[in-house]
Design goal:
By secondary structure, the chain is of the alpha/beta class. The chain has helices at 26-34, 59-72, 87-101, 119-125, 185-194, 202-212, 230-238, 258-270; strands at 13-20, 47-55, 75-81, 105-112, 116-117, 135-141, 173-182, 218-221, 248-249. It has a domain at 13-139 and 172-223: Spore Coat Polysaccharide Biosynthesis Protein SpsA, Chain A.
Length: 271
């Protein structure tokens, strides 16, 4: 599934957002389209989003996805099975699509479908990314800090044949829920991926291993502007109003209305 015209004929496209989404997360995608990925909320900036999916075995689910795409025309579906261990393919698919169809965006963002992003703050305080080159902005992880899990019972276990005799990943990298990427870097990352052996942990591969092969690349940490705590996200965006320094937060996944509530609170601080 491809929608090649998403970025065409836009005189000023501020950001192209690629969203890692699970095939059956219809409601999450709908909420994101109505809230922080809706360009009508931004006066002088324009956002476009693509939702990245893999293939599914269920023909009924596939039909529903195709019907969704007929309405919104924003789904990109790659030729790989949609699974947790195929997230690297999903990221490379995003790089490929942007490289081929959206070079006019001033910068790009990769986000998961369980986050909320305050693009008002991005455009106001972090707009310098538009002028940077070979630049990643994210929840930065320094080299030799991220442990390599060997226990087969662990979610991110890595076989002993890989990274032999290493206890920690030797790369500067990004923790995954949101990464902001300078416009020049997307095609470079895609080209580098096409020449690099596959590794299934996408945070490490896309934002650690690949960047380590690109000269003069900078990881800019916004760690203090990212929260993985549901309650803090709601409190910061909702109660502290303009004092909230968050750029990326995680709404409660058990509450389908959480993102809408947070967004409504955030909008009140803007207008």
């Amino acid at each position: 599934m491809n929608n090649k015209n998403i970025c065409k004929n836009i005189s000023k496209l501020s950001c192209i957002v690629m969203v890692y989404s699970s095939p059956d997360h219809f409601e999450r995608r709908e909420v994101m389209r109505k809230t922080f990925l809706n360009s009508t909320f931004y006066k002088e900036e324009t956002i476009r989003a693509i939702f990245l999916l893999g293939e599914v075995y269920n023909s009924s689910l596939q039909h529903t996805i195709e019907q969704e795409n007929l309405v919104f025309r924003d789904i990109i579906q790659g030729k790989f099975i949609d699974s947790y261990r195929n997230l690297t393919y999903k990221g490379v698919l995003g790089f490929k699509w942007i490289s081929e169809n959206c070079r006019n965006a001033e910068f790009a963002a990769k986000i998961d479908d369980d986050v909320i992003v305050n693009f008002f703050k991005i455009f106001q305080h972090f707009s310098f990314i538009k002028f940077k080159r070979r630049f990643l902005m994210c929840d930065k992880v320094n080299p030799n800090l991220y442990p390599i899990q060997r226990d087969t019972n662990e979610k991110w276990n890595v076989h002993n044949d890989m990274f032999k005799r290493m206890l920690r990943y030797p790369y500067t990298s990004c923790l995954g829920p949101a990464v902001f990427i300078s416009r020049d870097l997307i095609p470079i990352l895609y080209t580098t991926a096409s020449m690099s052996p596959f590794f299934w942990i996408e945070d490490i591969y896309l934002f650690g291993i690949l960047p380590s092969k690109i000269p003069a690349l900078v990881h800019h940490g916004i760690n203090q502007n990212v929260s993985y705590n549901y309650q803090y996200t709601a409190d910061c965006f909702g109660k502290q109003r303009k004092e909230c320094g968050l750029v990326v937060g995680m709404p409660d996944p058990e509450d389908n209305t959480a993102t809408v509530k947070i967004w409504n609170s955030l909008i009140k601080t803007i207008h």
